[in-house]
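User: Good morning. I'm curious how S-adenosylmethionine would be positioned relative to this chain. Could you predict the structure with it bound?
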Amino acid sequence: MTDNGRVPETDFPRSLADRLRGILIDADYTVSGVRDRLGDAAARALAREELVPALRATGGDERLGLLLRLWWLQSPIPERAARAILPVDELAGAGLVATDGDTVRALVNLTPWELEEGRPGFVVSDPKVRPGQGLVPRPDHVVGAGGASSTLAELMVNGPFDRALDLGTGCGVQALHLASRAREVVATDLNPRAVRLAGTSLALSGVRDARLAQGSLFEPVAGERFDLVVSNPPFVITPESARYTYRESDLPGDQVCAELVRQAPAHLTEGGWCQILANWVHSDGDDWEDRVGGWVTGTGCSGWVVQRDVQDPAEYVELWLRDSCEHGTPEYTRRYDAWLDYFEREGIKGIGFGWICLRNDVAQDAAVRVEELRHEIERPVGPYLPEVVDGAMTALRLPDTALLSAHVALAPGVVEERVGRPGAPDPEKILLRQRDGLRRVARIGTVEAALAGVCDGTMPVGPLLDVIAELMGEDPEVVRGRAPDALRTLISEGFFKVMR
Ligand SMILES: C[S@@+](CC[C@H](N)C(=O)[O-])C[C@H]1O[C@@H](n2cnc3c(N)ncnc32)[C@H](O)[C@@H]1O
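Assistant: Good morning! Here's the predicted structure, ligand included:
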């Protein structure tokens, strides 16, 4: 490591990285190549951490099978076969493999990862600790890319950007996704081994010019601003401070996420985004929406906070004890009990999982939307996320008078559903449904339904409501008085768009 806390970009010689990348791509060691090679049943078994079907599917001396066994399944392969396809001595020198008798074994987990437009990427992490091995991760374990990594990658707004930061880069997976969005990418981590492995992932994925730095939170980028900051931070809420660096911080409860939100605005350019995955507590006498919304309010940024799931304390403890392969160990019961004790002491009744998006809207009136979305939504979210945030922020800033003189249009992809007894003159309920994006459904009244049928942005809302009131035999003043609240909600949820 150099004096200023930065680590060399990688210990992995560039020529070796290029050579290995060529070998992996030639052998079709890609997400689709591996999927085809394993077949559905073995791939599903692997997702359940069951290796046997995958080992059976990758027997023999064929290149792709050997690579899969070595670097994905962590199963040693014969040295003679390894030497036929890989520069074993150079890879051993770079710390990626070791020879053991007449076999070669992997010292890292090296898996393919699909980048934007199907470009092949590779992520390098510590060997996966699997259930039944009798092992737990080392405290500075560098975790590979998983479900949460995909969630954040799919949440990322599209560029192009000038500068982007991946805070807590781990195996470097988010930095790989940033590389196609930003001219300059910086990736940081508290764990120096993570910084090194991220460098290897970047080199193997053909990303040449990312800057890597070691340090806590925003320390390594003090005084710097970015157009996009992303982080999948160590958000796990536990009684034991930073037992595993990859998932736990030394801040109590959910404070690492609060701290990231607090510090992020000083590192965002005007209009810049910060997107983080987070966990937050649901505690006695505390409203989670106020709590997490409160982190954002006052930062000067607009915010969109989404809760995607909530777990009860027991589910949460089991999830993370399974994650670290502690199920069935002698310590399991003691840790489980101590973790529940901690939740009880702190009055924690549940834990929310979700994301926090900030946009540095200093020039405008920043606003915050906090909501729960537990249903399936269109993925990736990033391409349509700015539009969602724009709609929500516009609606929150729109007073009644401005709303009545605004031109609004039904958003593309919104359909109406009427539900009622067949043959009945009136429906029991009318729904608007988004066929794509966040796939929201809203129950609406007849006035909003009529508005949805006619508004295309050419006429302002007020005169349209007057015509609708007249057709329905209602007092236009009453309709004008009632409509803004309902319409504001529909705009904030993306059913209508404000045109001007
Ligand atoms: C959940 S992993 C995320 C890895 C990767 N970015 C991803 O999306 O899969 C969290 C990362 O944050 C790092 N980390 C932990 N504490 C940190 C801190 N105080 N400052 C910066 N990084 C930290 C860990 O070393 C780990 O690599």
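The CA atoms of residues 67 and 424 lie 65 Å apart. Residues 476-492 form the longest helix (17 residues).
Let me know if you'd like a different ligand tried.
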